[in-house]
Design brief:
Elements: E1 4-6, H1 14-23, E2 36-38, H2 42-56, H3 65-73, E3 77-79, H4 88-92, H5 102-118, H6 127-152, H7 189-206, H8 219-233, H9 236-247, H10 263-266, E4 273-277, H11 290-294, E5 304-306, H12 308-313, E6 332-337, E7 340-345, E8 360-364, H13 365-379, H14 382-393, H15 406-416, H16 423-430, E9 434-435, E10 446-447, H17 460-465
Antiparallel strand pairs: 1-2, 3-5, 4-8, 6-7, 9-10
Helix pairs in contact: 2-5, 2-6, 5-6, 6-7, 6-8, 7-8, 8-9, 8-13, 9-13, 13-14, 13-15
Length: 475
């Protein structure tokens, strides 16, 4: 009997119920050859995993929105005066304007669960190949759940009014809409984070003998993500230890020099990439790409630019000095749009040679150094924290620091990882308010951490179709 994974069904059947039994068959991603992929052999299982990586590349996820929105929800970026009306809600922190990855993430989770359910019985392939596929599946499931958790819930140590619901945990293939298990309730934050840790630990064990390839889940990626997860949980000692394991591994890409900073984004793979999504020529998002939203090239909208505050943090400002001493300012393009002075980000400048087809680095070496710096500082190991911090600080062109505060580390994270989708989540996980001081008179001053808009709303149709789902407070 063939094992089959049916695409197009959302993890809980909600999208299926909305679209009808025939509608979902007509909305197949264009990279699938059929509506049904068999997993009776290892090649079929591998094809399903490739499909999961393709999901991560979608415009609503790492292909654009999940990178851009956290910069606009926070204080790194703003919308230009003359714009195409994209991301206005995120820039204003309007109710309901947030990251909306629920359906895509659970689609990916369901596919991964099928891989885990069927790979051991699949014909062909060695046990090493099967273990590698399982390791990739556990890694990606952990990534998906962590992205869901930090979007739709509060962080473990920064709950508000005791509300600790996270997202539903689905760890087996979709059972069908007639099953009561198809409509789960939300697990708690603690339970979801426990599962994420478990998945990553299993991924690390299963990927131990696999070769390092940044385009797929690998042992360094699993360890780097686990270090990030520990950071969100404020498990400082564990975060520091895991980050140091990655830094001291001979396979980890070395930090680039200051003059070569842009090779982190322009090279294929990125010079510091531990895990990145590789876009081929025919996977370009074109006008819906990161290039289009960030840059004024080709058919680009160039709606998103640096805030004046971020520009000043890099040591420059319009009307005074537009010369940046920071080596990372290589990523900036200072120009004018419809008479307005703007600074654009060029980390995604179609370096693959095809408009809108940039690889997207999700985990890279610099982040791991910053994780080590923060975790060691919070754990009381100031000497090592300074060492890891200064590795990036001096590379950018500054003198080595002799003392360190948590605000210094978060500023360094802001400068190093700008435009990569971290800023909002870094402030949120610390329980810090979102500062905003944009020039638009209709823009809010900022967003307090306790404000309900810090957490994304679950789409109303999901709530309507699943009576076991509780909406987030405020919506």
């Amino acid at each position: 009997m063939k094992n089959k994974l049916f695409y197009g069904i959302a993890a809980f059947g909600f999208s299926l119920a909305l679209a009808g039994c025939e509608g979902w068959l007509e909305s197949e991603p264009n990279y699938l050859l059929t509506n049904e992929v068999t997993m009776e052999d290892v090649d079929g299982v591998r094809a399903v995993m490739v499909g999961v990586y393709d999901l991560l590349q979608s415009t609503g996820y790492y292909g654009r929105d999940f990178i851009v929105s956290p910069e606009l929800l926070a204080d790194n970026c703003r919308i230009t005066d003359n714009n195409s009306n994209r991301f206005i809600g995120q820039s204003l922190n309007q109710v309901g304007s947030h990251n909306a990855i629920w359906a895509t993430a659970y689609n990916g989770i369901n596919r991964v669960n099928n891989v885990l359910a069927f790979v051991d019985d699949a014909a062909g392939g060695s046990q090493t190949e099967k273990d590698e596929l399982k390791g990739q599946a556990f890694f990606v499931r952990a990534l998906l759940y962590h992205d869901l958790a930090r979007s739709y819930s509060r962080e473990p140590n920064h709950l508000v009014n005791g509300f600790d619901l996270c997202v539903p945990l689905l760890l087996v293939p979709f059972p069908g809409i007639t099953s009561p298990d198809a409509f789960p309730s939300r697990a708690t934050v603690a339970v979801v984070y426990e599962q994420i840790e478990k998945d990553l630990t299993q991924a690390i064990d299963l990927l131990a003998s696999s070769s390092f390839d940044p385009n797929y889940g690998n042992i360094l990626a699993a360890k780097s993500l686990l270090a990030r997860v520990y950071l969100y949980e404020e498990k400082w000692s564990q975060a520091a230890a895991m980050a140091e394991e990655v830094i001291n591994d001979s396979r980890t890409p070395a930090l680039v020099t200051g003059e070569n900073y842009m090779t982190c984004f322009s090279a294929t793979p990125g010079a510091e990439s531990i895990f990145e999504l590789r876009f081929t020529e025919n996977e370009s998002e074109g006008p819906n790409s990161l290039t289009s939203i960030y840059m004024q090239v080709g058919a680009g909208y160039a709606d998103v630019c640096l805030t004046d505050d971020l520009m000043q943090k890099f040591g420059a400002s319009f009307g005074q000095d537009t010369t940046f001493a920071d080596a990372r300012a290589q990523a900036f393009q200072i120009t004018s749009k419809s008479g307005e002075n703007v600074v654009y980000n060029t980390k995604y400048a179609s370096y693959n040679g095809v408009y809108g087809s940039d690889n997207v680095a999700i985990l890279r070496t610099s982040e791991v150094y910053l994780t080590s710096a923060e975790a060691n500082l919070m754990a009381g190991n100031t000497a090592l924290a300074l060492q890891r911090y200064n590795a990036l600080h001096t590379r950018a062109g500054y003198e080595a620091a002799t003392s360190l505060a948590i605000e210094d580390v978060l500023l360094e994270r802001r400068l190093e990882l700008a435009f990569e989708g971290h800023r909002f989540y870094d402030l949120k996980r610390k329980g810090w308010d979102i500062p905003k001081s944009f020039k638009f008179e209709y823009l809010p001053v900022g967003l307090e951490y306790r404000d309900f808009r810090m957490v994304a709303n679950i789409a109303p149709d999901e709530i309507e179709l699943n009576e076991n789902l509780d909406q987030n407070p405020g919506y």
